[in-house]
Amino acid sequence: xxxxxxxxxxxxxxxxxxxxxxxxxxxxxxxxxxxxxxxxxxxxxxxxxxxxxxxxxxxxxxxxxxxxxxxxxxxxxxxxxxxxxxxxxxxxxxxxxxxxxxxxxxxxxxxxxxxxxxxxxxxxxxxxxxxxxxxxxxxxxxxxxxxxxxxxxxxxxxxxxxxxxxxxxxxxxxxxxxxxxxxxxxxxxxxxxxxxxxxxxxxxxxxxxxxxxxxxxxxxxxxxxxxxxxxxxxxxxxxxxxxxxxxxxxxxxxxxxxxxxxxxxxxxxxxxxxxxxxxxxxxxxxxxxxxxxxxxxxxxxxxxxxxxxxxxxxxxxxxxxxxxxxxxxxxxxxxxxxxxxxxxxxxxxxxxxxxxxxxxxxxxxxxxxxxxxxxxxxxxxxxxxxxxxxxxxxxxxxxxxxxxxxxxxxxxxxxxxxxxxxxxxxxxxxxxxxxxxxxxxxxxxxxxxxxxxxxxxxxxxxxxx
Length: 465
Description:
Layout: E1 2-6, H1 16-30, E2 34-40, E3 58-62, H2 67-78, E4 84-89, H3 97-101, E5 108-112, H4 116-122, H5 126-134, E6 138-141, H6 152-155, E7 158-160, H7 173-178, E8 182-187, H8 197-207, E9 214-219, H9 225-234, E10 241-245, H10 250-255, E11 259-262, H11 272-279, E12 284-287, H12 291-296, E13 302-305, H13 315-326, H14 330-348, H15 350-367, H16 395-407, H17 419-458
Parallel strand pairs: 1-2, 1-4, 2-3, 4-5, 5-6, 6-7, 8-9, 8-11, 9-10, 11-12, 12-13
């Protein structure tokens, strides 16, 4: 087969998705398939020159910044001779897929590398999210736990394939046991919206006095680098936290650690850092509110921090989860880490994952694309707020949404809103305002209660005579 991989940042930014796409492409090339990479052109700050892609491949560069660029990209793709194409996304750039592949005759697989609720409600909208996915001949998701968050017609074309775990690393367990200094490690982009490393800093601040031999190490770079530095100082743990920035050899960082923690609340798809840490036999810690954390960290593999009675994730809960592992003897943590490694290798070993991908490619090629016929737009953004289980999301309405996206001059630009849309938005904003007023009233009541308690405890000493 001639297999295409859409990875728009492939030539510029070596992110988790580009690394995973590259591993899949390399595996398929190793099985005798011809590979084409579809990417935007390398930026001046590119970290991954195309010469580093260590397998035979063709390259199609696209420019999505203009109508002319989109037209040229569609012509290149249509002329590519691909038998099938896979496109993986962790953001809303999937909205370009209906326009790029409409009329190409190429079966398309769209993969989501985040909790789908992030796309539908936190960063995007159900209409454009579901419409983009409806154009795909197959939907790739990372965990079966995400299936309820899609409309029924999309669930019917969904295929669950996890990320491939790296092979077990060579770990010097005797050296790890013999260390005098211990380390909790967090790895990932320093972005509070997704990773929530502020919670790990606050949790470590609660533990630092009780565990003087332990340090915290954050590996990675990102927009919150300076913020976390300042926060560590404010928490009084600046001398106990190491910020490495981006590193070339992350394996060495894992090997020097004792516990791995990823404090994301819910944005993750199936974090490669969990799989990488497990390959180095590290116990895993995360919040149970994160679907991926809860799915990966099984019994005896680490610890999950649960939300409090009000449904809030707290640094105290994360500190308690870490405390239980930090208090163990090194050999006991080693046993937990090895169980974690063996369990995730069994579920996500490379051979099984790439077998599943090859089978999916062959199945989609055999069925062909259903997008040969003309699509008829017939749905508008008035459906923005509907939940995935709403009966409105039928196959017909989903395909009409896909058609509207394919016909946009600029896929990233929403169509003009109608009067009904403005009325719906007005209702939504009024509901939000009412909720804020209720929250404010509750805070005022709580403040009055606390102020009364303070006055009672101080015996009126704070009053002016």
